[in-house]
Each structure stands twice: as C-alpha cells, then as structure tokens.
Amino acid sequence: METKTIIMAKLSAENTSWVGDELPDWENAIYTVDDPTAPLHLAVNKGREANAYLTYIIQHYNNLPNTLVFLHSHKDGWPEAWHTDVKDYNNVLSVQKLRLDSVQNNGYINLRCVPIPGCPDEIQPFRDPPEGHRASEHATEAAWKYMFGNDDVPRVIGVACCSQFAVSRKQVLSRPKTDYERYLNWLMETPLDDAFEKILVLNMPERSDKRDALSLAASLTNLKFDYVDGVIGKNIPSKALPVGQEQRNMPNSTLGSWRAHMNAIRGVVEQNLSSALILEDDADWDIRIKSQLLDFAKGSRFLLNQSVTQQTLSPYGDGWDILWLGFCHDIIPENDPRTYLIDNDVSIPQPDKMYFNNPELFSQYPNHTRIIHMVGSPICTFGYAISLQGARKILYALSVKELRGIFDNALSWWCTDHSQDAVCIDAHPSYFYQHRAAGASGKNSDINEGLPPMEKGETHNIRWSTRLNLEKLVMGQTDFEDSYPDTS
Fold this sequence. Notes:
By secondary structure, the protein is α/β, with parallel strands linked by helices. Helix content is 30%, strand content 16%. The chain is globular, with a radius of gyration of 24 Å.
C-alpha cells in the first residue's frame, strides 16, 4: 500500500489545520517547536525546520512511509510563502501536483522549480576574498567535515532553496540511521547562532525612506524584518496612559516612542515568541552581524554560567530577559563586574576613533577588544533582544503597572533596580548604532526635529557599516568602505 506523510515544523501560534483539512489523503507529523507539552515536540527549540525533519527520520527510521514531503507551515500567500513558486504560492497546490512516481524514480524532488536563490553557486566555502555577510559559508567547511567525516569539502554548492522537498523511503534508507543522528547531534551542540524568532523594526508608516533603506540592508545581510508601526503620541487617548503620566507629563514625542516599543513587546507576548530582536528604524550594523553574534553568544552564556556545549532553548543561553545589543552608553556594574572579552575583533575601531562617554573603560584593554558584561546603566535603545519571559515582565512593569518615564530610561531602570530580578546583558561597544543619513535638518529623527542637516551619512563605532556599503553590496563588490580604518 502506498503510504505518504507530510513532515512540518511550526510555532504554537501558527495554524496548520489546513494540512489535514485540504490534504486529507496524506498522513502528517507536525512538530510544535516552542511548546514542550505539544503531542509532537522537539527536545530543544533550535535549528528551525532541520531539527523537526531530522527528528522525524530518526524516530521513524524503521517504519518510514513510501513518500516523505518536508514542508513549511505557511499555507500560501506573499511574502510568507514566497519560497513556494506554484500559483498563489500555495503549498496545498504544490503537494497536490507532486508526481509520486517521479519521487520514487529520482529519490529526491525539490518542491521549488525556480533555481534562484541557491543556484548555481550560492555557497562557496573558500570564496576569495571572503564576504562577511555570507554567514553560512563561514561554517560550511567545519560542518561538512563533522557531518561527512572527510576533508573533501566542495568549493561550490548550489541547490534551489528553500528546505521544501520530497524524498522516497529508499533514498532516506540509503544512509544509516547513525548518519542522521550525527547530523542532529551537530545541530544540538553547535554554538552557531539560530538567531531570534523574529526581528521587529519600529517605523512610522509615512517614513518610506527609512523602510526602503532598512529592507534593502536586511536583504543584503540575510536578515528578515517585520515592521511595527510607529505611534504619534498625540493620538494616544489620555485614558490609555498608565499611572504616572500625571506626575511626569511626558511630551507627545516620547509618549509615541514608548507606545511603539510597548506594541512590539506586546506582540512578542501575543505571538508567544521565544525571543525577538527589536530595532529602531535608524539602526545600523556591521555587514558581518551574524558572525559577530556568534561570539556574543559565547559571552552571554559565560555570564549565565552555561557552557557553549550545554543544551539550551536559546543559543544565547537560558534565563536572560534583555540582550541590549544597541545603545549609546553604559557602564560595568559594581555589583557584578564579570566580563567576557572578545579579543582581536577587527570590526571595532581603535578607541581614539570611537564615540563613547567612558574612555577609561577601553583604556584597560588592547585595541579591538569587545567587552560582554551585565548592564550597568544603559541609555538608548537602537536595538535589543527580548525573551518571552522578559517581554511579559516588561509589559507589566512599563505599561500595566506604571509609566516610569522615557522608554530607554525606564527599561534601564527596570534592568538595574532588581524589582523583577531582571537579567540584562550587553556588549561594549554595542553591535547596533544609530545611522544618520545624508539629508535635510530633522530627517534623522521623528522625535527630535532640531538635528542639523547631514552632508554625508555616518554611523558611529561601526567600521564596515551596512548602510554605508549598500551600493557595494548591491553591486556585488567586496572592497567595502571602512569608516574607521586603523592608524599606527
């Protein structure tokens, strides 16, 4: 008898009932990655769909169906299901049109027909010169040697994206079960960053200039943004403001900023996201941000007393509330002066070229040292990651309970006043900074209209700025502009 199964990974907030409703002739195995109480779940929420795919194969190796289809949880529509290239990006139609005889004859069928992205040469592990924004290439050589047990690493790997495919039982069984167990073991033990469930960007809808630049920058550095609309402070009804506004009398501009941040944080709670990175729409970052955060993860785990090989739900370790990744000033707290040093990080300018308020901090260390530590008194929220437990605490403390003040000040106080045992970690210098684009007076802020005009764009403390290298990235050039080159 012909047997066939759809294997899928989903978040608890996602509705995948369409699989059973519209593909009733298929069995399904749908793993909920962020709910350890779900009937089908994973040991650790790490590795995205690869974790679920490998887990299914290992669990069912001796009783596999004839045909296995590995599918994403999105049913249809743009942009959620952009990687499905049948009409209306419809995964139901994609499965219905699948020729099972072709799967059996070929062993493997990619469900995407369009070869780009992926072909002909997406992954080049030995690209010369290396391109910092291609994070997957940096890990390919070591991963290949571990998984396949040989040093014959290909110079070019090309396959149409995007992790949706069909295979035959015979093809799966052509490798022993121990191979799949080794692949899953690598996935569980690697310190490589699995990023955050979502990256949320605060942006006024009318600021299409900022959204254009952000979307382009994200695409060129392999990030995906979801936008959260900014808020005009005067449009917030007075009855919607928490206790505290009567004493503080915050102006409309800062009220709007506070509400936009709270809307993003509330979204983390509503969607039950395990974590999210929240950026303001003037944020900038190094073209190698993903590989930079691999090092940060080692530091955060050190501060959390969790080794890089310890299994945790988050690649940054478990138990943190805020990873304050973009700020303009902070200090190392006296009550916890522990530090994790990242040495020889050439993406950091020399101290005499950096903008910060505590030069004595960097005078203690060699050039190009990044310092990971618990927060002391951070100011500015260019970018910060938040865990689900952190989001719940902050939604209560900074909105439901009271209005404590300007958002970045209030968040800083919350991190350091021990009222909810907050665990907040940052890096000096931080990974995200404010970009000031070239243009007229007031262009760079929706809060402070008094900023001077800029003849040329700038970003403090980031040598290879994504924003300042957009044209080179678009054109595929690799001679990136170094905003703060070393001097002897």
